[in-house]
């Protein structure tokens, strides 16, 4: 699972870098308040989906499907950054798909503790909970 975690970490870092414009070595938009515009992109592809979204699959199978889509997103973030894109938007259900039942979506979900009960930042403590793989892939 460490390879999967590093893939999402790399993906999220790439998004962060692209969003801040850090890939150019120039001052980021967040620090430079006089910037009048930024370069944005919207990306969508035919997502790799569960063959039968109403059938219950294992958590491992769900993570494998999501990782395939995240790999594609990672490639697109790199390509967009090379073209000067500073922020990129992906589809809402692009990682896991859609048309699930309440039961069949369960393997695709991560546990999120109540912020009123538990103070937790998954970026700072990625291994605190054992069922949050897709937050820290």
From TrEMBL:
Function: Catalytic release of biotin from biocytin, the product of biotin-dependent carboxylases degradation.
A molecular function (GO) term: biotinidase activity
GO biological process, one term: biotin metabolic process
Lineage, opening ranks: Eukaryota, Metazoa, Chordata, Craniata, Vertebrata
Keyword vocabulary terms for this entry: Signal
CN hydrolase domain residues: 52-137
Name used for this protein in its record: Biotinidase
EC number: 3.5.1.12
UniProt cross-references to PROSITE patterns, sorted A to Z: CN_HYDROLASE
Organism from which the protein derives: Papio anubis
Extent of the signal sequence: 1-21
Reactions accelerated catalytically: biocytin + H2O = biotin + L-lysine
Family: Belongs to the carbon-nitrogen hydrolase superfamily. BTD/VNN family.
Keyword Disulfide bond carried by entry: no
């Amino acid at each position: 699972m460490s390879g999967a975690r590093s893939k999402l970490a790399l993906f999220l870092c790439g998004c962060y870098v692209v969003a801040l414009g850090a890939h150019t070595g120039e001052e980021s938009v967040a620090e430079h308040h006089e910037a009048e515009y930024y370069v944005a992109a919207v990306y969508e592809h035919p997502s790799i989906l569960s063959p039968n979204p109403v059938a219950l699959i294992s958590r491992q199978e769900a993570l494998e499907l999501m990782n395939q889509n995240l790999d594609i997103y990672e490639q697109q973030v790199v390509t967009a950054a090379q073209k000067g894109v500073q922020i990129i938007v992906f589809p809402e259900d692009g990682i896991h798909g859609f048309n699930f039942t309440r039961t069949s979506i369960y393997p695709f979900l991560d546990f999120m503790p109540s912020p009123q009960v538990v103070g937790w930042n998954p970026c700072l403590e990625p291994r605190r909970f054992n069922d949050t793989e897709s937050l820290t892939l």
